[in-house]
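Box 3.1 A note on notation
Throughout this textbook, protein chains are presented in two layers. The first layer is the amino acid sequence; the second is a token string describing backbone geometry. Keep the layers aligned when reading.
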Amino acid sequence: MITSLSIKNYALIEKLSIDFSKGFSIITGETGAGKSIILGALGLVLGKRADLTSLKNKEEKCIIEAQFEISKYNLKEFFEANDLDYEDDTIIRREILPSGKSRAFINDSPVNLQELQDLSLFLIDIHSQQQTQELSDETVQFKIIDAIADNFDVITSYQELLKGYKSDKTKLNALLKKQSDSGKEQEYNTFLLNELIAAKLKAGEQEELEAEFEKLNNVEVIKEAIDKSLVIANEEQFGVFHNLNEIKASLQKIAPFSVEYQNLFERVASVAIEFDDVSREMQNVSEKLLNDPEKLELTNQKLQLIYNLQKKHQVISVDELLQIQTNLENAVIELGNIEEEIALLTNSIAQKVEELDAFSALIHQNRANAIPVLSSKLISILETLGMPNVRFNIELLPSETYFQNGKDELQFLFSANKGTDFGLLKKVASGGEMSRIMLAVKAILAQYSKLPTLIFDEIDTGVSGEIAIRMGEIMKEMSRNMQIFAITHLPQIAAKGDSHFKVFKSTVDDDTQSELKLLSQDERVIEIAQMLSGAVVSDSALNHAKALLN
């Protein structure tokens, strides 16, 4: 429950501080006195967006602070999840700076508006005329029925499963599309891959083949050059070997005479040994050189195959072709796995459908059991609110569609008078009837769910007299289990409150201000008398006011 509210520099309020008690509180005041300002300030505390027009004095910041007693709300997990300090008496503060920026704090810890809005759902429910109209919305109607049906846990489980189901369906559709789109691509990729596999490419192969091709293609020229070199090297009288041996023999004779000659001799001897090795190598090469047209043709074919593949794939090396082959293998494998993935997802979806249908059936049955209870309680309350012939026909229609809260569709049909056909609530119910139905709904929900502090903003629209008295009694009864506020223009409702606050305007030094005051018992009598007769209070109005209060 809210225990206090402090407002500074907001709209027509310069400074205001007020304490609230549990039970049933009444807020009254003339039109334009500032009741909407109080609600607006409270809305800022609950996370609504603000702007500079909220500031009374544009040079100073606006501060709105509310204190809540939350020990019975089971909110410790919420505070832990949002890394906030938990206090039984929690303080929410909202500041709007002259720059237009705003800040929010929960127990002095800065928070963003979303966190404030999330917490506010557990604290205050402001019921306005707009919310009364929302009663015609199917989503709201389902929430009412599900509260009575105690469907919260099963719907939560259903929604988690539905989330997985939708995710699987999205993945499956993407795979099916990919499978459809990649049919021709798969065929072409497989063709390209098989072409590369058939080529039996190896890293560095191109360079080896090109060298082999040059050798085979020029075998006669090579052999002629080597054989001629061998003749020059080995000719008996004028060959290189003969001449080297002559030089070596001459230097050997003078080698003992000095180190210099010895070095020359050794160097020539080394050249002779090296040349002998070269000669032997040329001899081996010459013997191996054969004119092999068949091998030349095979080498040429392999090279042409490589060149063609490089041209097709727009690369210049075998290594790049091998990388393309790897990529194609992965692509073909990936596409080949699509059918397996599709089968797995299809099975997963089928299992989730089975579970979703089971949850949906349970939700449907719980709703079917709750609808007669809701209808009976609504009729019972509305009969006391001047609607003795009211009837409801709430039709629960099974659907094949998985909605966010099950597989049901709903028709909330209503008839206020005997002899009239049922019609959709939003089409046939008047404003006064909608107000009374909403009050009845809130009264019923208070028995089934832990509603937060509830503020009724002129829910008495369109009613008066005895009906207003009964509405006040219903709100009074609700306040036994929760904190209730009623902003009202009806004295019959105002008289039912445990405490009574009045919103009024005052003028100080040509400055208009809105104020909120807790009325004493005598002041309540006068306020209710004024609500009955106007500014001039008659004795009969005073007596009537006292009678209402008693």
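The mean pLDDT is 87. Residues 1-134+452-519 form a domain with the Rossmann fold fold (CATH 3.40.50.300).
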